[in-house]
Every structure is written in structure tokens, then in C-alpha cells.
């Protein structure tokens, strides 16, 4: 964890409200691990908190980080105005990412919409020593376009969209069930809308598969100093910014479901 | 010459810079950004007798130039603090540790103060009286002078450690409260705690925070904090620990000139994790440039009699 | 269909958008930027019986996301308002005019209310009780429930115009004050007035404002305003005129959902002189997009029972 | 008075903390009058109030406005980062400027430091129909460098600096007295530190000359709606933003000098 001023080398619209930002940042690019994130400071001082954005991809050799972001409110809107050559302050890498220390496993990666942002680097981190299958799900073709940016043969990605504009007409779980009817996997990694992740985790548990999910919470400090992002888990209170954002699904799912302590992800 | 050396409630501090309770965990969370021993003192997260999970739902909301929090005093409880945390930080944090203590009744405050009394590592107590008093219909201890006085007195009776009473700004007359806690033996007052605020999610047509209301902190509250510190520091003889929106060296100087003998940094650290270092270096530079032997010379400099 | 049509204290308004007293002069100052008749109502600068020069020295200070003012009720007095200003604006402003009235004693309030009673152009009175009460040791009328109730009652007795009592946020329990002014006949409450704050000029080692303290307004105070409006609007039956930091369409929607039946724009107009127009258009658009026949449908939408 | 988004076409350092900003803004350039000012909105939303900056020069034909500014605090510091092509929101033209409806007069213009900013356009507005003499005073050579930007023969400008680095070693009043010992003038216009303007006004009054001075006050609205900038004058309370910033010296000087209602200009 440290502060670094990165220099923007690309910041372009990827269709709809999605943007890809490439940043030159030596220490950050080297330190980043899949599933971790950076807090990006807004230039406009009226917005005092950093915006947590996942590591989409890190090119350690070229000292380059990629962020893939969706415009949600004023902060991410502000990001879209940043020009090439402009500096941004990065705080990170933060949190506990995915378990990437696997070898010879059959891995299923299930991403939903913007949830696919952290999964690109996850795939990069595990694909050489394991077999990876990717499900890219979303509302429509725009929501899964992020997969075009993966370093992964597009024809090997299983697409599923609610409106059927690309791939299977259906959701991530439909696609997952279909794959599971043909194949067995050792582990599932998932990131996307909370409801989707819960459903994915349930299916994984039914199939006795390990499942890692990546949560979102509003954050102030990013370093477990403020307990703003704490959630109730089967192992007690956990901080999404430090103990997570990636958790084993079993400690999260079905915790006191009536209490809204799960995840702020309203998608 | 250490121009920042400060004595506060009998503690010799390297400098008058502390952390604000709830914004710095238990002292080691920011160690990758700067050495916590650069601080004058470390004020840790508010503790209660029993562990607390805090409030459910969203707990953080950004507001213009500020933020709301409704963490609801999530903390691991005094047992865990004594048995686990003090061991974790032992040797790693050599700056004085100050615990922030909280209760739902005067008895609870007394109980936790007694527990803290025996913890060697803790050099002073910050008595947070902004919490709702369950026996008094839920109004904060800090909202009524008599009650604020009573809890101060009760805690002072069971501890030998200096007691810094932390005042709530959500009151009509903060000077009256400061005076009564002084009369009841407080060694210092700390102000301000957060302003009660809220934010609404217009898409969901619901409050953003699960708890509806939360505490406002950050630069937005700075003028209110300065006003209260200016008023209180002229009305009491005990020193004032000032906080509320400090996010730059100039802010720190404003707080000292308003009458704070020491300052706490909270939300400003979220905005800039190395803020404490920047302020320390900035104050040193200020002293040198202005030929000031010790930073305490500017405390209260904006008061009318100065 | 005018989806913004609102009835407030018996006045039929084109929309629920008003100006905040002291931020819009006497109604024509911003006419080059937008037609003041686009507003639901125009609340003019606080008036007193005699003309007042206001405070000396610097009166404005910017703060993070906000500003302090200590104009000290500079105004030309009720005579000048009646004899000169009402003539100047006659015919030019057709939206209802609301006067904000101020006194140093209950008698002064009564006196000025009587004077206003006979001014045809004035459709309602905003009774500002945030000023210091000279007979009560300088504490604001709005700080003590009994006094707030008494001044409301006294003014109601001498006027037939609707009375909107404007509350100070610098109190421990704003709900108690709102309730007592309701009991004493207030037709509505307006909140919030400014938070008391200050700022220090570190070069001069002096308060920035000549008057030392000033009123904090602008986006910084929004969370406090929303919280108070949310609390008060659930506790009283009379309508709430909401204000405090509104600077965008979304802010306006937040205030309505918090429970304000109408809103006033103050500091936001300094930030963006065409803000009232933008909010008017934005609210219309919001209604259309959300299939809302009248904006009043969202008033209090964030309340727990909704 | 109106709002206009101007486009920056130049924004360069002029030595020390002084900057010249040129802005393309059609309506504003045409409407501007000498002595008036614009409120410039900061991009950083933490600073909510516009910064009042005088019209340094307006090129009506080319629709270009010049602002000459000194870095004082965070707002003017922010201005220095604005790039060519960036938009800035202008509110104005505001206030009552200098009386430029003179013909065949002998005019003395006395500027001190940044007070010379509004005087360039004043000189442009009166020089063709009148005879103009300029005194440019300041701390040192840096403080009077602004005169290089005037469209006026430099050798005809009388310089006076406290340290004598350029022109006469002395202040504006010394220079003024020297000129008055040789010549008579019909009117004096002055802008600069308040103490300087007061001294200039006194000398003018001793010589029975009309004198216009330009004041500064902290402002919120700029349109006499907030009375934040009000000052006590011999004609009662006046708003610097609307009744001024230019006033006849006689209504301002010696008003209740013990009360600090004059001018916030602390220079
Ligand atoms: C660990 C983590 C990784 C993330 N990675 C990505 C990513 O790679 N790409 C991407 O587009 N988005 C990502 N998000 C979500 C992203 O942080 C929010 O969309 C963003 O903060 C919204 O900011 P805003 O100012 O545009 O929105 P506003 O709604 O105006 O923001 C207001 C406040 O709420 C916070 N906030 C709003 N939505 C969220 C959210 N979903 N999660 C956390 N805080 C939120 C903001 O940070 C800010 O403090 C991630 C969130 C987390 C927690
Ligand atoms: C009518 C008028 C014309 C001016 N013309 C020029 C000009 O041409 N060039 C130039 O360099 N400066 C000019 N000034 C001064 C200029 O407005 C201030 O230097 C500037 O506002 C400082 O902003 P800041 O954020 O850098 O400083 P800060 O001190 O951080 O500003 C804090 C607040 O105080 C206000 N403020 C600070 N100093 C002044 C001041 N002297 N007058 C009014 N408000 C102030 C700011 O606008 C802001 O609201 C003029 C002022 C007035 C009133
Ligand atoms: C996330 C968060 C948690 C806090 N927790 C506590 C607490 O446990 N006890 C306490 O007395 N104050 C608590 N506070 C208040 C701060 O200590 C401080 O008084 C306040 O935030 C104002 O300072 P700031 O603006 O610098 O943050 C908390 C503040 C924040 C933002
Ligand atoms: C310059 C200024 C002058 C004000 N004068 C008055 C006044 O005369 N009477 C009054 O009741 N409120 C006065 N107010 C308070 C405003 O009407 C309003 O309640 C407050 O500013 C909060 O709203 P805002 O944040 O939208 O400005 C004044 C506020 C400002 C900024
Ligand atoms: S964001 Fe502060 S503890 Fe997680
Ligand atoms: S700045 Fe508002 S009246 Fe002059």
C-alpha cells in the first residue's frame, strides 16, 4: 500500500457509459494483484473520498495499469474529462484479491456487467497454469463489451445477455448451469451484481465447488481504519476494503439475509 | 530544537498532532503510509464494554466537501482491546495511546473507565459524550449540561489518567457544556465530534445511510469547529483538543490560532493518508519562517485580547 | 399541465421554488439572468423597523464548499421598503412577495408585522427568529422554545398574512422548537437558517470577518439541513419550506423527499445565477420522466412510512 | 450582465506571481467597460464563490478579453493551471466603471501594483480624446512589469518603485507630487493599495482635482443582492460590486476612518 501519482496515457469511451483508462504508474503496476483495487482521488475537491476502482489489468513490464469504469455519479463523470498526460493520485493496491495460487485446476470465471472489470487480470494471473472458462453476462451487448478488452480468445468466452443481443439469451446462472451440465470445475470466481453472485455461489455450493466472490461497499479509508465498509459475515464483522473485497462465498452468503449488511451494490 | 514539542494534559508530546477517534483504527492501519510514531499521540477507535457490530446497511456517504458516517461504534470491545490489540501494537507504537470510551449509561462509562485504568499502554482517556443516553430517553450525554457534568465526574472518580471530554457540536450552547465538564474535573475538552446530518438517495427515495442519520465530518464542518473552539477556549482554563475538517497545514494553524492546544486529524487522513506528516513538516516550517520557538506560542493568537 | 403548481400556506404558486432571504436582494437584482416571475415566490432581504448599516469590516468569507456571511441585517428599513421598494418592483414582480422580518425584542417584531400587514404586495411573512434577543441576554429567539413560541404568537395576533417561522439550526433540539411555533399558530416553518461559524486569517492572526462570527451557508451545510427538515417535517403538520445548500436539481429533489413542501435557493444562486431556472426545468423533466402529475407527490417520499 | 463561457486562448506567467489570461468571449468582450469586472468561476467545486477580476483589456473586434491576475490564494492558483482551449464561466460585466466620457482633458492615471490591472483599458478608453499621463508604482520592477502590457509608449510612463529598481525611487504619491509641481491635471484615476489611493485622493483634493478610485471588497453575488460588499460612504451604504468598484474619492475617503468599513484590501 502506498500513494503514487500515475500519468494517464489513455482514457477512452468504450461505448455506452463505459471507459478504459490506462495509467503509467511504476510501483502500482508492479504491486497490483488480481482482485485488488485502487482508490482514485478526484481532482474536484468538493468530492473528498477516493473512488475504489478495481485493477482491470496490470502490465508489470511496461508499468501500466488499466482501469475499466462505468459512469455512475459525479466522480466517475469527472474521470471521463481527464486528459492524456494528466496526473491522478492512486492509493493502493488495496484489499485482499482473488486466490491466484492455483495449479492445474479447471476454473470457471463468472462476470456480470461491470463485475467483469477485475476478472481480466484474474484470468491473466491464472490462465497459464490452469484451464479457464469465462462466462460474460450482462443486460445487453454493451454491458459485455468489456470482454473484448480481455486477452482471451473471444470465441472461447460464453456470452449471456438478458436481451439475447449477444450469446445465450439468459443470465449468468443459466449459462453456468448449462456449462455445469457438461463439465466439472474446481473453483468458481465471480464478480457482478450481488444477486447474481449469490445465485452463482448457491449453484457452486450445490456442486460442492469452492467459490470466491468480490463485494462492493462504500468506503472512506480503504485500509480498515474507519470500519465504514464493514459487513456481517459468518466469521464476524469483516472489512470489505481489507479482508475483502474478495471473500470465500460461504462466509458471506445467507448471513442474516433480512439485515441489509451484505453489499451496497444496488444493481 | 523541537519547535513542536507540546505538553497536553500532562503528557509530553513530540508535537500537537493526534488522530481523531474512529479515523485511524487502532494505530497501525496507516503504517505503510507513514510511521505512526511521528504523531504526538494516537487516539484509537471508540471502545465499548461489549463488542459491537455497529449499524447495518450503508454506513458512509459522501457530501459536498464532507462525509457522513454511521458506523455506530462498531468495535471489538474492551476485552479484545486489552488482550489482543494492546499486544499487537506493543513496541510498534511508542507515541502515547489515548482510548476513546463510550457507554449507554453512566455506569457503563464508569465500568469501561475502570477497565482502561489498568491498561498501562493507555496514557489518557477521551470521554465521548456524543452517544445517546439510553436512560435519558436517547438524548446524547453531551446534549444536556447536567448529564455531561455527571458522566465526567463519575469517570474522573475512577481513573487516575487524564480525561479529555469530547463534546458534541449538536447543541445550542457548547460553552455551557464545556464549563460544566471543566467544573466536574475534565483535564481537557475535545471538539468537535460530528454534526448530525443525512443524505437521500433520490433513485431509491430512501436515506442513503442504513441508520438514516450519520455524523458529518470533513472540510465542510471546519467553520463550525473553529467557531466552537474559539468560543470554548476563551471560556475555560483547561486546554482544548481541536478537530473538525482539518485537511491542510493552514487549517492546522487556524485551529491553533482559534485556541486549540493540540489537534486531531480524522477525515483529512482519508483524503490524504500522509496528511499528518505534511502538517508536521508544515508546522515546523511555519515556526522557522516566523521565528517561533514553540508552536504553542500561536495557540489562541486570534483571540481578542491577543 | 403544470406539474410544479404548489399551494403553500394558502398561496397558489407556479412552482415550489423560492429565493432565500438575503440572497436575492429585493427581487430585481438578478433580472438580467432570469425573469424573477419564473419563481414560485420571492423572499426578500430581512427587514427591520429602522434602516441598519449592518456589521463593519469584512462580511464575506469563503469556506470549503460553503461561505460565511456577517452582513448583520443591513437593510433600508421598513419605511423605505414600503415607500420606495414596493413601488420599484410594482408590476415587475408578479410572483408573490414574502418579507423576512426581524426584531431585537418581541415588541419590534410586532411593530414590523403590523407595518407589513398593510402592504398589499406582501403575501406572507417569514419570521426570522435566528437573531439575538437583546432582552434575553443576546441568545437568539430561535434558541429557546418558549421565546420562539411567544414571538410567533405575538406576530400571529397582529397579522392576517400567513406566517412562516424561520428556524435557527444552532440548537440542540429543532423539533421541539418547530412544535412550539406550530402550537403558537405558525402557518409553516422554514429551515435552515445559517450555522454559526468562523474563519481565521492566519497572516493577520485575526478572524476574517469583522464581526468574528458569521453564518455558514452553501453545499457544506446540506446534510444538516436535510436532517433537520426530515425530522421536523415528520413531527409537525404544517408545511416546511426547506433550504440550506441547494445547488442542483438533484439537491432540490432530495429536499422535497426529505419533507420540504417548497424550497428556497440562496448561496446556490451566487454559485450559479440561473440555478432557479435550471431547477424549475429539472423538476419538470423529473416529473415527466417519472410519470408524476404533481411534484408534491414526492414531498416526504423518504419518510419511513412511505 | 450575463453569463458567458469564454475559451482561454492564452494564460501565461508574466514574471513573479503575475499572469495574463486572454479569453475569447464574444458578448463579454463587446459589453466590457473600463473599471468593470467579471466574476470568474473556479473549476474546483470546493471554492464556491466567483473571483472578481477586472477587465484588463477588451478587444471588441477580436472578441477577446484580457485579465491580468496575481496569485493570492487557492483560487487564483487554480487559474494558473487552466490550459488553452479550456472554458471558463464569466459573470459580468459587473459594477460601475470609470467615467470615460471625457474629452480634451488632462488625465493623470495612478496605478499601484495589481491596481494597474483595470487601468490599461481605462487608458485605452480615454487616450484618444484626452491627454493621458500614467504613473506606474510598485514594490519593485516585478510589480510594475504589468505596464509592459499596456498599449502605451513605455518611455511616457512614469515609473516609481520602493526599491528604485526602475524609475524613481519612491512611491506613487512622490511621483504624483513631482508631476503636479510641473503640470496641472483635470482628473486623477487611481487603483492600488487602499492606503496609496487615500494618499492620492488627498493630494488630488488639495489640488482641487476630481479623483476616481477603485475599491476591492469580498463579494458573494456581484449584483447587489447579498450586501456582502457594502461599505459606509458619505452618501450612506454603497455596494462595491454595483455602485462601485469605482467611486468618486470624495464620497469614500475619511469616512469614519476608525471603523474598518473602507476596503478589505490589505496590501
Ligand atoms: C472494491 C471495489 C472495486 C470497484 N471496481 C470498480 C471498477 O473496476 N469499475 C467501476 O466502474 N466501478 C468499480 N467500483 C464501483 C465504483 O467504486 C463506483 O461506481 C464509484 O465509486 C462511483 O463514484 P461516483 O462518484 O461516480 O458515484 P456517486 O454515486 O456520486 O458516489 C458517491 C459516493 O459513493 C461511493 N460509491 C458509489 N457507488 C459505489 C459502489 N458501487 N461501490 C463503492 N462505493 C460507491 C463513491 O465512491 C462516492 O464516495 C468498485 C467498487 C469497489 C468497492
Ligand atoms: C472589483 C475587483 C477587481 C479585481 N481585479 C483584480 C485583477 O484584475 N487582478 C487580480 O489579480 N486581482 C483582482 N482583484 C482581487 C481578486 O479578486 C483576488 O485576488 C482573488 O479573489 C483572490 O482569490 P484567491 O482564491 O486566490 O484567494 P483567497 O484569499 O484564497 O480567496 C478567498 C476568498 O476571498 C476572496 N478575496 C480574496 N482577496 C480578495 C480581494 N482582494 N478582493 C476581493 N475578494 C477577495 C476570494 O474571491 C475568495 O472568495 C479584484 C478584486 C475586486 C473586488
Ligand atoms: C468514520 C468515523 C468514525 C468515527 N468514530 C468516532 C468514535 O468512535 N468516537 C468519537 O469520539 N468520534 C468518532 N468520530 C468523530 C471524529 O473523531 C472527529 O471528531 C470528527 O470526524 C471531526 O473531525 P474530522 O472532520 O477531522 O474527521 C468518527 C468520525 C468518522 C469520520
Ligand atoms: C448573504 C446572506 C444573507 C442572508 N440574510 C438573511 C436574512 O436577512 N434573513 C434570513 O432569515 N436569512 C438570511 N440568510 C440565510 C438564508 O436565507 C438561508 O437560510 C441560508 O443561507 C441557507 O440557505 P443556502 O445555503 O441556500 O444559502 C442569509 C444568507 C446569506 C448567505
Ligand atoms: S473503508 Fe474504512 S474500513 Fe474499509
Ligand atoms: S457582492 Fe453581493 S452585494 Fe456586492
UniProtKB/TrEMBL annotation, chains A, D:
InterPro entries membership: Cyt_c3_hydrogenase_gsu, Dihydroorotate_DH_ele_sf, Dihydroorotate_DH_Fe-S-bd, FAD-bd_FR_type, FNR_nucleotide-bd, PyrK_electron_transfer, Riboflavin_synthase-like_b-brl
NCBIfam families: PRK00054.1-3 (NF000798)
CDD domains: DHOD_e_trans
Biological-process GO terms, alphabetical: pyrimidine nucleotide biosynthetic process
Keyword Metal-binding in annotation: yes
Family label: Belongs to the PyrK family.
Cofactor: [2Fe-2S] cluster; FAD
Name of this protein: Dihydroorotate oxidase B, electron transfer subunit
Binding site for [2Fe-2S] cluster: 221, 226, 229, 241
Cited SUPFAM superfamilies: Ferredoxin reductase-like, C-terminal NADP-linked domain, Riboflavin synthase domain-like
Co-factor binding details: Binds 1 [2Fe-2S] cluster per subunit. Binds 1 FAD per subunit.
A Pfam family matched in the record: DHODB_Fe-S_bind
Keywords per UniProt: 2Fe-2S, Electron transport, FAD, Flavoprotein, Iron, Iron-sulfur, Metal-binding, Oxidoreductase, Plasmid, Transport
Binding annotation for FAD: 51-54, 75-76
EC number: 1.3.98.1
GO molecular function, one term: flavin adenine dinucleotide binding
PANTHER family associated with the record: DIHYDROOROTATE DEHYDROGENASE B (NAD(+)), ELECTRON TRANSFER SUBUNIT, DIHYDROOROTATE DEHYDROGENASE B (NAD(+)), ELECTRON TRANSFER SUBUNIT-RELATED
Residues covered by the FAD-binding FR-type domain: 1-100
Automatic annotation (TrEMBL), chains B, C:
UniProt subcellular location: Cytoplasm
Sequence positions that bind FMN: 21, 45-46, 100, 128, 166, 192, 218, 244-245, 266-267
InterPro entries according to UniProt: Aldolase_TIM, DHO_dehydrogenase, DHOD_1B, Dihydroorotate_DH_1, Dihydroorotate_DH_1_2, Dihydroorotate_DH_cat, Dihydroorotate_DH_CS, Dihydroorotate_DH_I
BP GO terms, sorted: 'de novo' pyrimidine nucleobase biosynthetic process; 'de novo' UMP biosynthetic process
GO molecular function: dihydroorotate dehydrogenase activity
Domain Dihydroorotate dehydrogenase catalytic: 4-285
UniProt enzyme class: oxidoreductase
Names of the cofactor(s): FMN
Keyword Flavoprotein (UniProt): yes
Coarse class of the protein's main subcellular location: cytoplasm
EC number: 1.3.-.-
The entry's keywords: Cytoplasm, Flavoprotein, FMN, Oxidoreductase, Plasmid, Pyrimidine biosynthesis
Biological pathway: Pyrimidine metabolism; UMP biosynthesis via de novo pathway
Residues of the signal peptide: none
GO CC field: cytoplasm
Active site: 131 (nucleophile)
Binding site for substrate: 45, 69-73, 128, 193-194
Reaction(s) catalysed by this chain's protein: (S)-dihydroorotate + A = orotate + AH2
Cited function: Catalyzes the conversion of dihydroorotate to orotate.
Family: Belongs to the dihydroorotate dehydrogenase family. Type 1 subfamily.
Name of the protein this chain belongs to: Dihydroorotate dehydrogenase
Gene: pyrD
Amino acid at each position: 500500500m502506498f500513494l503514487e501519482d500515475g500519468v494517464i496515457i489513455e482514457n477512452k469511451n468504450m461505448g455506452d457509459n463505459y471507459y478504459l483508462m490506462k495509467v503509467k504508474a511504476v510501483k502500482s503496476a508492479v504491486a497490483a494483484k488480481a482482485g485488488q483495487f485502487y482508490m482514485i482521488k478526484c481532482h474536484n475537491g468538493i468530492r473528498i473520498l477516493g473512488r475504489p476502482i478495481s485493477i482491470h489489468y496490470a502490465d508489470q513490464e511496461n508499468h501500466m495499469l488499466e482501469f475499466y469504469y462505468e459512469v455512475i455519479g459525479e466522480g466517475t463523470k469527472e474521470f471521463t474529462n481527464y486528459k492524456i498526460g494528466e496526473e491522478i493520485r492512486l492509493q493502493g493496491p488495496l484489499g485482499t484479491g482473488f486466490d491466484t495460487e492455483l495449479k492445474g485446476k479447471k476454473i470457471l470465471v463468472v462476470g456480470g456487467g461491470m463485475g467483469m472489470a477485475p476478472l481480466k487480470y484474474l484470468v491473466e494471473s491464472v490462465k497459464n497454469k490452469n484451464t479457464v472458462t469465462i462466462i460474460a453476462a450482462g443486460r445487453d451487448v454493451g454491458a459485455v463489451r468489456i470482454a473484448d478488452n480481455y486477452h482471451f480468445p473471444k470465441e472461447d468466452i460464453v456470452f449471456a445477455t438478458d436481451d439475447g443481443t449477444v450469446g445465450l439469451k439468459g443470465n449468468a446462472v443459466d449459462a453456468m448451469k448449462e456449462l455445469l451440465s457438461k463439465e466439472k470445475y474446481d473453483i468458481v470466481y465471480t464478480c457482478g451484481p450481488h444477486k447474481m453472485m449469490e445465485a452463482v455461489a448457491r449453484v457452486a455450493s450445490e456442486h460442492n465447488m469452492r467459490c470466491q466472490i468480490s463485494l462492493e461497499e462504500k468506503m472512506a479509508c480503504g485500509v480498515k481504519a474507519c470500519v465504514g465498509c464493514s459487513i456481517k459475515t459468518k466469521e464476524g464483522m469483516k472489512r470489505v476494503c481489507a479482508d475483502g473485497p474478495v471473500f470465500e462465498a460461504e462466509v458471506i452468503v445467507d448471513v442474516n439475509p433480512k439485515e441489509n449488511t451484505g453489499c451496497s451494490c444496488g444493481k | 530544537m523541537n519547535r513542536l514539542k507540546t505538553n497536553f494534559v500532562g503528557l509530553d508530546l513530540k508535537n500537537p498532532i493526534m488522530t481523531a477517534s474512529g479515523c485511524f483504527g487502532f494505530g497501525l492501519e496507516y503504517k505503510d503510509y507513514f510511521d505512526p510514531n511521528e504523531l504526538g499521540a494516537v487516539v484509537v477507535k471508540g471502545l465499548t464494554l461489549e463488542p459491537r457490530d455497529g449499524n447495518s446497511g450503508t454506513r458512509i456517504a459522501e457530501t459536498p466537501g464532507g462525509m457522513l458516517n454511521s458506523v455506530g461504534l462498531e468495535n471489538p470491545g474492551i476485552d479484545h482491546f486489552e488482550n489482543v490489540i494492546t499486544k499487537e501494537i506493543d513496541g510498534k507504537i511508542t507515541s502515547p495511546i489515548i482510548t476513546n470510551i463510550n457507554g449507554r449509561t453512566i455506569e457503563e462509562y464508569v465500568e469501561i473507565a475502570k477497565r482502561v485504568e489498568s491498561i498501562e499502554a493507555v496514557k489518557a482517556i477521551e470521554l465521548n459524550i456524543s452517544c445517546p443516553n439510553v436512560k435519558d430517553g436517547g438524548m446524547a450525554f453531551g446534549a444536556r449540561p447536567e448529564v455531561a457534568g455527571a458522566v465526567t465526574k463519575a469517570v474522573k472518580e475512577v481513573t487516575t489518567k487524564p480525561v479529555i471530554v469530547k463534546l458534541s457540536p449538536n447543541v445550542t450552547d457548547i460553552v455551557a457544556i464545556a464549563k460544566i465538564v471543566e467544573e466536574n474535573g475534565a483535564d481537557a475538552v475535545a471538539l468537535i465530534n460530528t454534526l448530525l446530518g443525512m443524505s437521500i438517495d433520490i433513485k431509491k427515495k430512501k436515506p442513503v445511510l442504513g441508520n438514516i442519520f450519520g455524523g458529518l465530518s470533513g472540510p465542510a464542518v471546519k467553520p463550525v469547529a473553529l467557531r466552537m473552539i474559539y468560543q470554548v477556549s476563551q471560556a475555560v482554563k483547561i486546554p482544548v483538543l481541536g478537530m473538525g475538517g482539518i485537511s491542510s497545514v493552514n487549517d492546522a494553524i487556524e485551529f491553533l490560532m482559534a485556541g486549540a492546544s493540540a489537534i486531531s486529524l480524522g477525515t483529512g487522513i482519508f483524503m490524504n493518508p500522509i496528511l499528518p506528516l505534511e502538517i508536521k513538516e508544515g508546522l515546523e516550517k511555519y515556526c522557522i519562517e516566523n521565528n517561533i520557538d514553540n508552536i504553542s506560542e500561536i495557540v489562541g493568537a486570534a483571540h481578542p485580547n491577543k
